[in-house]
Amino acid sequence: MKMPDAEKLLNIGIALSADSDSDHLLRIILDTAMELTECDGGTLYTLKNKTLEFHIMVTLSQNIDRGGNGEIIDLPSVPLLKENVCAKSAIEKSIINVSDVYNDPRFDFSGPRKYDKMTGYRTVSMLVVPMTDDKDEIIGVLQLINAKDENGNIVSFPKECEQVIRSLASQAAIRLTNLNYSHETMKLLESFIQVTSMAIDARTPYNSNHTHNMARYGKKFLKWLRDTKHLLRMTEEGEKEFIMTIWLHDIGKLLIPIDIMNKATRLGHMEHNVFQRLRIIKILNQLNFAKKEITREKFEKNILLIESAHGIIKKVNSVEFLTEELLKKIGEIRKRTFKDENGRTVSWLTEDEYEALTIRKGTLTKNERRIMEEHVVMTARILSQMTFGRGYKNVPGWASAHHEYLDGTGYPMHIKAEGIPYQVRLLTILDIFDALTARDRPYKKPMSVERAFEVLMNMADEGCLDKELIILFKESEAWKVGNKNEI
Ligand SMILES: [Fe+2]
Ligand SMILES: [Fe+2]
After folding, report:
1. How many whole angstroms from 209 Cα to the centroid of ligand 1?
2. Nearest ligand, CA 432
3. Over the stretch 220-236, which tens digit does the pLDDT of each residue have?
4. What ligand has the least distance to the C-alpha of 247?
5. Range of the domain at 111
6. 63/169 same-domain check
7. Assuming Cys at both sites, which of 42, 59, 272, 478 could form a disulfide with 64, CB separation 3.0 to 4.6 Å?
8. pLDDT higher than 90, residue 1
């Protein structure tokens, strides 16, 4: 074995610390250990459920190279029994150096013998090194087979290589453990964020799948960009950052009053008062007639007016778009008055009720809409209180801009195209697409996908949205309804 020089060790250290793929790290360990000891074969076992599982298996002279890329090696795991050399190394955390496997009575080598018989191989020397992490816990075992001298003859593993391989294995083990910690922390964070967004969606039955749907469309679209090798495809980190933004984009809705979020009709909570007042007007009309203060003709005319107003208000309260005709009729009702029990002249509709009933589209008044739109400001405020690591630094900015339009007519910052990255443009498109096609909005029926794309394209023509992204999203078919749970 050639002792590795400082530069080589340094390079190995750098490679181990730079890699964030566990499988790839294990591969580096095995390849480097084999290269350093100039041996012919190596197996890397990882400890799982108290057994050693085959993770990677390499025999150069037989062109065998299995596992390591998620491929499962279909060989039975090694139970932690001391008769087995790898298990003993793991249990005792000790290096075991065997010069001649077939003539070493210390261990049961029936496994390698059986394997040799099947493959025609001859296992001679073996070096087994435990992989321990920073807490001195075993995470796996490295087994090297058949060291060679400069002439290619099989020799024993020299004593001096034991510590070098052990230090390599431990360095890698620590890196792997750290990687696992960070994966676990990330998973915890991601699941926490998903639960939070489920809580946002669950606040209102009228929006109950919004974030979930967007995450589904987003993931499918990003996969499509990847699969088609599109110029706009994102890196793995970029994708994670984008999906995290989807999950958090409406977090500000947690602070929006529930009666605004759930407002299913124009009048909302005022509905009761309006119809109650019409009932009183009707009773007062009857009393006036009974007291002979009005004629029968006037009485009957009033009844017709009240009943017609009731019907019109009922219709206007929940109709999707308000026509000019309905608007005019509401204007006429607003002009009508009656004398209350104190003799005061009172309008049939209050100013607020009239404002609500004359909302052209949707169910929110100007003020309610302003409060609703505040949710992006709240999103920005909440996310500014959170610490986003390197890979997620764009999340607060992207999330807070999901209602901005390219021509500056969006809100709340009125940013224009130059200041809106394509990730935000995409987020806005996904957001509007889901709003249009949602099946659970209180004030409107779901729009067909075709019509929704027409609306999106109109908005692009008006300068609000990114046309190319809409075309790509349509082409990707990422919007196709699949399994609701497929994220
Ligand atoms: Fe939003
Ligand atoms: Fe949204």
Report:
1. 13
2. 2
3. 999 999 999 999 999 99
4. 2
5. 6-180
6. yes
7. 59
8. no
